[in-house]
Amino acid sequence: MSGRRVVVTAGATGLGRAMARAFRDRGDRVAICDLDAAAVAAFAEACPEALAHVADVRDEAQMGAFLGAVEAAWGGADVVCANAGTGGPAGRIETLEYGAWQDCVAVNLHGAFLTCRWAARVMRGQGSGLILLTSSTAGLFGYPLRAPYAGSKWAIVGLAKTLAMELGPDGVRVNALCPGAVEGARMQRVLAMEARASGLSEEELRARYARGVSLRSWVTEEDVVGTALWLASPAAARISGQVIAIDGNTETLVP
Prior knowledge:
By secondary structure, this protein is α/β, with parallel strands linked by helices. It has two domains: 5-180 and 220-243, NAD(P)-binding Rossmann-like Domain (Rossmann fold), CATH 3.40.50; 182-218, no CATH class. It contains eight helices and seven strands, in the order E-H-E-H-E-H-E-H-E-H-E-H-H-H-E. It has helices at residues 14-25, 37-46, 60-74, 98-126, 147-167, 185-198, 202-211, 221-231, and strands at 5-9, 29-34, 51-54, 79-82, 129-134, 172-179, 243-246. Helix 4 links the parallel strand 4 and strand 5 (129-134). Helix 3 (60-74) runs parallel beside helix 4 (98-126). It is globular and about 50 Å long.
């Protein structure tokens, strides 16, 4: 299981960092990109053996430079985690600015496209590989006040399903991960944004997220990372085209 070549976008912060470090700790070679230059520098210091680049997943030239460097160093990749995402704006759709919509879709969907386009080429050529796309439970349910985020995360599910069909005959597996509300700084920012849009307190929103799932709890980064590691293991060799929720069984995302 170890010694594989693993690429993680948005891999210097949050869930991406947790994924990258878990693969590294398993003995895999890891390459990450992230928009946060300080976080990339910190990751490189902590994991000096890793390939760590500053890159904006929305930018074709920057992603080309990053992925080109990975290909030059490794000749390909065995696991690619198209993980980069942003929460986008919150509010009723008639209040949203088009630029904010475009930015959310560009990060969540266009970034995944650029990453998967490269992964598909190199993995098809080598006849093997795993692509993991990070969607969300917002890609499975309606999500009031978060139309750009929900729309882009539903699109990720469609992309994963389609790529699994396109690449399966060449030995490449593709799956979508749908985490629920993951504990951490990112969800704290989301709570603050949704509180402003809804008029509810952050504490009430936090409680509502928990009440909306059968297990009445939030998700940890470790929950999601464990699923990613399993999908990259021989135990999941026939798992492809699946949309896997790591969320405690979401019943509703209605505030």
